[in-house]
């Protein structure tokens, strides 16, 4: 399983290329040389760039950034070879202990110090996150069966309004953060992961994910 990558926006293109493209090529060659029969590659929904309102496996890719580009090239490297069956998983924000670079994590960091939170499209229902335990369960499920090379999008299976997510996080983090609603030129999007659900996988609910994540943060905050 290939999980390593340079993530986010804080690197130049050469760093992204070295860690997300060249390293992936090296891993594939190593896997083939050592008789591997399966590989699971953790990609990202960032491959879609400026996504449409609902994204799925066949959604058009539009204007991706350096990170999204190099993860997409990584997918092509993994899926183009025929010696090993491959599964590329396009992931949204992964929630759990140690989460970073995720929108809800940035909200939580501000809530813990009662800083104001700015949100867009408060009534839009999103599914753009997943719990790390759900990801682990899906990978275990796929490793137990003989899969053929494919690409799947994962997400929380039930949507939740952005304003409800933020209110729930405030409640669970005992935060006094002010919520500011602002307009944005970027259209919100949600994720359709029905293809993954069809193999028998069901994610935690949005409230379960949020409550577990906030409980973890509260525990870590008390220790510090």
Topology:
Layout: H1 13-33, E1 38-44, E2 54-55, H2 66-80, E3 85-91, E4 93-95, H3 103-111, E5 117-119, E6 125-126, E7 129-131, H4 132-143, E8 150-153, E9 160-161, H5 162-172, E10 179-181, E11 190-191, H6 194-197, H7 206-223
Parallel strand pairs: 1-3, 2-11, 3-8, 4-7, 5-10
Antiparallel strand pairs: 6-9
Written description of the protein model:
31% of the residues are buried. Helix content is 40%, strand content 17%. It has helices spanning 13-33, 66-80, 103-111, 132-143, 162-172, 194-197, 206-223; strands spanning 38-44, 54-55, 85-91, 93-95, 117-119, 125-126, 129-131, 150-153, 160-161, 179-181, 190-191. By secondary structure, it is α/β, with parallel strands linked by helices. Helix 1 (13-33) packs parallel to helix 2 and helix 5 (162-172) runs parallel beside helix 7. The two termini are 33 Å apart. The strands form 5 sheets. The chain has a 3-stranded parallel beta sheet with strand order 1-3-8, covered by helices on one side. It contains 7 helices and 11 strands.
């Amino acid at each position: 399983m290939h999980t390593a990558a340079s993530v986010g926006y804080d690197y130049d293109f050469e760093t992204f290329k070295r860690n997300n493209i060249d390293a992936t090529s090296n891993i594939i060659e190593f896997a083939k040389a050592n008789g591997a029969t399966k590989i699971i590659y953790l990609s990202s929904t960032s491959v879609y760039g400026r996504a449409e309102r609902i994204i799925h496996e066949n959604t058009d890719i539009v204007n991706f950034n350096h990170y999204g580009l190099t993860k997409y090239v990584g997918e092509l490297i993994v899926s183009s070879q025929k010696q090993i069956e491959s599964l590329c998983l396009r992931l949204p924000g992964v929630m759990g202990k140690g989460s970073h670079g995720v929108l809800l994590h940035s909200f939580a960091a501000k809530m813990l110090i009662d800083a104001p939170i700015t949100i867009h499209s408060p009534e839009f229902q999103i599914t753009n996150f997943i719990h790390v335990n759900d990801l682990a369960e899906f990978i275990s499920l796929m490793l137990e069966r003989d899969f053929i090379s494919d690409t799947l999008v994962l997400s929380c299976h039930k949507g939740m309004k952005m304003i409800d997510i933020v209110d729930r996080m405030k409640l669970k983090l005992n935060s006094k953060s002010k919520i500011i609603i602002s307009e944005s030129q970027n259209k919100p999007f949600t994720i359709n992961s029905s293809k993954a659900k069809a193999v028998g996988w069901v994610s935690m609910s949005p409230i379960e994910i949020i409550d577990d994540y906030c409980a973890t943060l509260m525990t870590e905050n008390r220790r510090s």
